Amino acid sequence: MPRRSTLSIATFNVNGIRSRLPHLITWLREEKPDIACLQELKSVDQGFPRSDLEAEGYHARWVGQASWNGVAVLVRGEESSEVRRVLPGDPSDSHARYLEVDALGLRVVCIYLPNGNPQPGPKFDYKLKWFDRFNRHAKKLFALDTPVVMAGDYNVVPTDFDIYNPRSWLKDALLQPESRERYAKLLKMGWVDAIRELYPEEQIYTFWDYFRQHWERDAGLRIDHLLLNEAAAKRLKEGGVDRWVRGLPKPSDHAPTWVKLKHVAMAKKPAKKSAK
């Protein structure tokens, strides 16, 4: 692999990895992210297209689930080291929503936060409990000296500035005060919302649903986020949304969202001297 001056880390809710595999591969070939966090695989572990992705130069770790959920982390040219595949705090939670790995000198967290609809109700209650567990763990991650990137579909529109028209979504779980308060709590810890940091006065969307020509009208929402701890935020260089992927035929309703961080090569450990 060529020496990297920056590292690109992307998050992409593929909305079905088997059905969107051609789109995923097209995007990987075109944009070549160093690390790609994927959500909503909708595939059991055995159905994950490992060989197809390896043919493109990507090593993968994933947590699958039949028909729902599922997350994966792809790393270009190198293997990652798995840290955990379950969010701490609830041993009974069987949803495939969390994967944490070490890769290319970073701690990378891939999440698919519960949608929570319809609300009020048990699905919204589960969302808030999951979010609380995530925030408790995020506090520990933030304290690491290692650069940490928490990337994924957070299913939260942080503010009214992050949606084309909040009036149409007032009852949706993505905009509820309880959801927004928990996201704001992450920022108060010190996590940096990378896209908003780079574009403080620009409306940027990452999701356009399939109804009422929302894509054609650019009636979008920003719900895919990359949060950086202090060590990672110091390296932030660029970021954006690969909107062209949403414009492909039969696409996911999300577009890949990415950042670039200055790459600091890890010092190699000195070789052990052989005994004489």
UniProtKB/TrEMBL annotation:
It holds the Pfam family Exo_endo_phos. Mg(2+) binds at N13, E40, D153, N155, D253, H254. One of its GO terms (biological process) is DNA repair. GO terms for molecular function: double-stranded DNA 3'-5' DNA exonuclease activity; metal ion binding. Residues 10-254 form the Endonuclease/exonuclease/phosphatase domain. Probably binds two magnesium or manganese ions per subunit. The record marks N155 as: Transition state stabilizer. SUPFAM superfamilies: DNase I-like (SSF56219). Keywords: Hydrolase, Magnesium, Manganese, Metal-binding. It comes from the Bacteria. Its cofactor is Mg(2+); Mn(2+). InterPro entries: AP_endonuc_1, Endo/exonu/phosph_ase_sf, Endo/exonuclease/phosphatase, ExoIII-like. The active site is at Y112, D153 (proton donor/acceptor), H254 (proton acceptor). The record marks D224 as: Important for catalytic activity. The record marks H254 as: Interaction with DNA substrate. CDD domains: ExoIII-like_AP-endo (cd09086). Belongs to the DNA repair enzymes AP/ExoA family. PANTHER family: EXODEOXYRIBONUCLEASE III (PTHR43250). This is Exodeoxyribonuclease III. It comes from Pseudoxanthomonas indica. The lineage of its organism: Bacteria, Pseudomonadati, Pseudomonadota, Gammaproteobacteria, Lysobacterales.
